[in-house]
Amino acid sequence: MALSTRVGGQTYPTKPVTIIVPFAAGGASDLVLRTFIDTAPAVLGQPVVVQSRPGGGGAIASDLVARAKPDGYTLLFGHSNSNSILPAVEGRSKGPDDLIAVCRVNTSGTFLLVRADAPFRTFGEMVAWARANPGTLIVANTGPWSAVDVTWKRMELEMGIHLRIVSYPGGADALVALLGGHVQAALLAPPQSLPQVRAGRLHALAWSGLERHRDLPAVPTAAEQGFDKTLSVFKGVMAPPGTPRPIVDRLADGFRRMLATPQAIDGIHRLGDEVAFLGPEEFAAYWRAEYETFRDLGRLLRRP
User: Fold this and answer.
1) Contact between residue 110 and residue 174 where contact means Cβ atoms under 8 Å apart
2) 74: domain CATH number?
3) Cα 285–289–292 angle (5° rounding)?
4) Cα 63 from Cα 60, distance rounded (Å)
5) Cis omega (within 30 of 0) on the bond before 96?
6) The model's pTM
7) Cα torsion 255, 256, 260, 266: sign
C-alpha cells in the first residue's frame, strides 16, 4: 500500500502528477524518465504524466515550472544544461535559487561520435584533421552553454582547433543531424548513441567518464587520449519554489522506490546509464556545487 502525506487536510497526491521534460521527446532525458515512470501508480497511488516542452535550451520548461502552483502536481525533470549551466553562465533559465531539489535520478557521460564512414577513426585523428582543415569540422551542439557546448569550447581552446558548431534543440535532433550527414561529430548520451553504435551506423571515438563504459569497453576515455575536461551531467526532479516539505519528501521517497525496482535498474542499464539517486538535501548540495563549477567555467570560456 502506498504511503500517504497529509497536506492541507488532503492526502497527497489525489490526482495525476505532471513532470515536464525540457527537451524534445526521444532524447536522453525522455528515455530515462520513461524507463520507470509507469510504476508511479503502484508507488505514489497516482500516475505520473510526462510532457515535453523543449525550447530555449530547457529554459522554457524551467521557467514554466518555476511559476507553477507549488502543490506537487507540476514538476520538472531537470538537467545540468538547463538548470546549472544556463543560469550560471547566462543568468537565464532556473537554477538552485529558483527551484526546489527533490531528487537526483542519475548522472551520465557522453560519447564522442562520428558517422561510420568518417575520415577519422580515433580522437587523435579527428583533432589532426580539424587542425589541417580549420573551421571545416562541423559538430552538433545542444544549445548555447550546454554541457556539450562547454565541451566543444574547451576542445577548441585546449586542442588548438576551430570548429563549426551548429545548435539543435536536443540530443534527439543532434542524432538525426549526425545520421543524416548534416554534421560530422556529436556528443551524445548512451541512451541515444549505443543503439546506433551497435547497429554500425556510428563510431565512438571517446567516452567522457573516468572509466571506460561497460557496454563499449574498447572505446578509450577522453582522458586516456589527452582531453580530461569533459563533464558528466545529472538528471533530477525539481519542484516549484514554495512546495511544502512534506510533499517534497513524499515525492523523493516515491522516486527512490521507483528507481529501486528491477524494471528501472534494468531499463536504465539497457540505455547505458546508471541509477544515481540522491535525496533532497544531498541533491541540493550536489546541484549547488555543479552550478558554481559552471559559473567559473563560463568566466574562463566565454567568447568575446
Assistant:
1) no
2) 3.40.190.150
3) 140
4) 5
5) no
6) 0.80
7) positive
Closest CA to 213 of 194, 230, 198, 241: 194
Residues 102 and 237 reside in one and the same domain: yes
Residue 65: which domain range? Answer: 5-108+232-301
pLDDT in tens, the chain (304 residues): 345 566 554 689 999 999 999 998 888 899 999 999 999 999 999 999 999 999 888 999 999 999 999 999 999 999 998 999 999 988 899 999 999 999 999 988 899 999 999 999 999 999 999 999 999 999 999 877 778 888 898 899 889 999 999 999 888 899 999 999 999 999 998 888 999 999 999 999 999 887 899 899 999 999 899 886 556 789 999 999 999 999 999 999 999 999 999 999 999 988 888 899 999 999 999 999 999 988 888 777 765 4
Q: State the Cα–Cα distance between residues 44 and 237, nearest whole angstrom.
A: 15
Residue found under cell 510504476: 39
Run of H or E residues at 7: strand 5-7
